TrEMBL record:
This is 3-hydroxy-3-methylglutaryl coenzyme A reductase. GO terms for molecular function: hydroxymethylglutaryl-CoA reductase (NADH) activity; hydroxymethylglutaryl-CoA reductase (NADPH) activity. Keywords: NAD, Oxidoreductase. GO terms for biological process: coenzyme A metabolic process. It comes from Bizionia paragorgiae. It holds the Pfam family HMG-CoA_red. InterPro entries: HMG_CoA_Rdtase, HMG_CoA_Rdtase_bac-typ, HMG_CoA_Rdtase_cat_sf, HMG_CoA_Rdtase_NAD(P)-bd_sf, HMG_CoA_Rdtase_sub-bd_dom_sf. SUPFAM superfamilies: NAD-binding domain of HMG-CoA reductase, Substrate-binding domain of HMG-CoA reductase.
Length: 433
């Protein structure tokens, strides 16, 4: 019987599990056992995870895989990826290996500026507001000194604050638009604390110096970071593209460019194309304890920055050289937040050689580019289903708890037959009779 509840957060974990099982899982013992099975027996470790969020009842595992052989700016990386989708790690690994022998990936951080805004309403005179802002700006900076001193000591901090007039869009709407350098931190807490202090000072001073009231609506960082940008690239002479699936490199390069051009002009394709890029990006972002929702939001906004949703990757052929690249915004951190807390995140960062935020931006962009290269290579040559169906076959066999011997026989059978769910079920049933 489903039921509302008050004080749920005050219940112990066992009581929470009891409650959810009784009211939403028809008292199922099997469901309860599953929830309990995923609770870690190491109490300290479990408590750590319990405290990441609220109302924890269990853990939700994702596999952590490794895509090795990534040569990036002449350094070799084995990239940790946390993802549930089959084929992604395999595709990344294949692309890494392909490019390792063709010069590897080149990546470069273009800029690292982050943004936050205080949104406010002011019904009074524009010129007076601008004059007031100019006068109060030094105090806005001064009043955040306690928050910024450590960041400044390391070379970061507030870069600038400007007043933005947005009254053409909403009557009386203005912003304090601030830019920040947060170095190796993602910087969300730092930025939000600075913004809330700006808002306090701004409102208090406005009371004394402006005839109309300043009404603060909200103070919050922006996840749209078009000036926190990284570029990743691969390139080689066209003839070097030859491999076991690319018999005709000229034709491959031509079709590859066509596939990229289609994603550049056709939003339906661009979304799927970019989804493939995010397969690589999110998996590394998640493994390294960063906020993949923030990254997703920012990247997709960037993909639509010219007014039409478009490809995040581009390709060209010039003087017989094939070049494939991406430029995308990634606000990442390698200190603070989950990076200091989650034991697996620490290990993931160690695997990557404890990178700076800038190096992590490069690695993540490369993972996205590699993923897109692998997807387009499959799509324009063998098609995507060949690899997927192999995985699909294995998943079905595992669902049926197939033995190694059964797996061998059935995999052999499907080398010459089309994999469908029903065909695999039939084959297992026949084999077992
Ligand atoms: C699947 O997760 C991703 C792809 O659809 C990407 C693409 O079509 O480019 C294969």
């Amino acid at each position: 019987m489903q039921k509302s509840v008050s004080g749920f957060s005050k219940l112990t974990k066992t009581e929470k599990i009891e409650w959810i099982v009784n009211h939403y899982l028809s008292g199922s013992k099997a469901s309860k056992d599953t929830l309990l099975q995923y609770v870690n027996s190491d109490e300290k470790l479990q408590q750590l995870h319990d405290e990441f969020i609220e109302n924890t009842i269990s853990n939700y595992y994702l596999p952590l895989g490794i895509a090795p052989n990534f040569k990036i700016n002449d350094t070799l990386y084995a990239i940790p990826m946390a993802i549930e989708e089959s084929s992604v790690v395999a595709a990344a690994s294949k692309a890494a290996k392909f490019w390792m022998s063709r010069g590897g990936f080149k990546a470069k951080v273009i800029a690292t500026t982050k943004i936050g805004q205080v949104h406010f309403m002011f019904p009074g005179d524009k010129q007076k507001l601008q004059a007031f802002f100019n006068a109060v700006k030094p105090q806005l900076l001064e009043d955040t000194k306690d928050i910024t001193k450590n960041m400044e000591a390391r070379g970061g901090g507030i870069l600038d604050i400007i007043l933005k007039d947005k009254t053409s869009e909403i009557d009386g709407y203005y912003q304090l638009h601030a830019t920040f350098e947060t170095l190796d931190a993602m910087g969300a807490n730092f930025i939000n604390s600075c913004l809330e202090q700006f808002a306090k000072t701004f409102k208090a001073e406005a009371k004394n110096h402006l005839e109309a009231p300043v009404e603060i609506v909200m103070s919050i960082l922006s996840n749209y970071v078009p000036d926190c940008l990284v570029r990743a690239e691969v390139s080689c002479p066209i003839e070097d593209l030859k491999d076991k699936n690319i018999a005709d490199p000229e034709l491959f390069a031509k079709k590859f460019l066509q596939a990229v051009s289609i994603a550049e002009v056709e939003p339906y394709r661009a979304v799927t194309h970019n989804k493939g890029i995010m397969n690589g990006i999110d998996a590394v972002v998640l493994a390294t304890g960063n906020d993949f929702r923030a990254i997703e939001a920012g990247v997709h906004a960037y993909a639509a920055r010219n007014g039409k949703y478009s490809s995040l990757t581009h390709a060209k052929i010039e003087n017989g050289v094939f070049t494939f690249w991406t430029e995308l915004p990634l606000a990442l951190g390698t200190v603070g937040g989950l990076t200091n807390l989650h034991p697996l995140v620490k290990v993931a960062l160690e695997i990557l050689g404890k990178p700076s935020a800038k190096t992590l931006m490069e690695i993540v962009a490369v993972a996205g580019l590699a993923q897109n290269f692998a997807a387009l290579k499959s799509l324009t040559t063998t098609g995507i289903q060949e690899g997927h169906m192999k995985m699909h076959l294995m998943n079905i066999l595992n669902q049926f708890h197939a033995t190694d011997k059964e797996k061998e026989t059935i995999i052999h059978h499907f080398k010459t037959h089309t994999v469908t769910h029903s065909a695999v079920v039939e084959a297992i049933t026949a084999l077992r009779q």
